[in-house]
Amino acid sequence: MHFQGRVSVFLCILGVAQLVSAGKSDDLLSRLVAADVEMCSKDTGVDVKEFEEARENRALNHSMLCFLKCAMEKIGFLKDGHLQIDQAKEAFPGKMTDSLEECFKGIGPISSCDDVQKAENCLPTS
């Protein structure tokens, strides 16, 4: 169960989990590696549970944005400073709205941890 909890948290980290129904299995699960979650947590000093709570409140601090950037890079949603929108569309077929896709396309390069906030701002509020 501990691993499943980490997978659930990791989906939130990717910034696209809000596009998928809670508890619904998807193709992304086959790409996740628990070691990557651990590495991003260790590298940034971010506790995964604290991240999840802060993200629910839309209150990510700098370290948490670094954690999110690390996770997005590990899973392949962020490469060379650019969001890989096609990767997200493949992982979540039919879940990305046109307006969300347009917002992602308009944010420009993501080179710093704080730049990740631009992608977060595209996500719909709960």
UniProtKB/TrEMBL annotation:
Gene3D superfamilies attached here?
Pheromone/general odorant binding protein domain
Q: What Gene Ontology molecular-function terms does this entry list?
A: odorant binding
Question: Is Signal among the key words of this record?
Answer: yes
* Top-rank taxon, per record: Eukaryota
What start and end residues bound the annotated signal peptide? 1-22
Q: Which Pfam family is one of those matched by this entry?
A: PBP_GOBP
- Fetch the InterPro entries from UniProt: PBP/GOBP (IPR006170), PBP_GOBP_sf (IPR036728)
Keywords in alphabetical order, please. Answer: Signal
Q: Which SUPFAM superfamilies match?
A: Insect pheromone/odorant-binding proteins
Protein's name in the database: Odorant binding protein 15
Gene coding for it: obp15
